[in-house]
Amino acid sequence: MSGSPVEVEGTVLAVLPRALYLVAIEGGREVQAHALSGPRVNFIRLIVGDRVMVALAPKDHTRGRVIRRLPKGR
Hints:
Distance between the termini: 35 Å
Number of strands: 5
Strand content: over 45%
CATH architecture: Beta Barrel
Strand order of the largest sheet: 1-2-3-5-4
CATH superfamily: Nucleic acid-binding proteins
Oligomer: single chain
Shape: globular
Number of helices: 0
């Protein structure tokens, strides 16, 4: 049973090589996340300080996927 991803809000701390991002999430934890990709997804450039929604892997909560950027006023 694989389970479904857990979605959490976070802030981009650093832009890493190979389209990876270091994201701070609740509880003071940091995760490595990659941007959502595919033929139908628009290219989104993230910078340090952006608020994002991250889907964490069900079995490994230290890795995830950035699924969307959140509005600045949030």
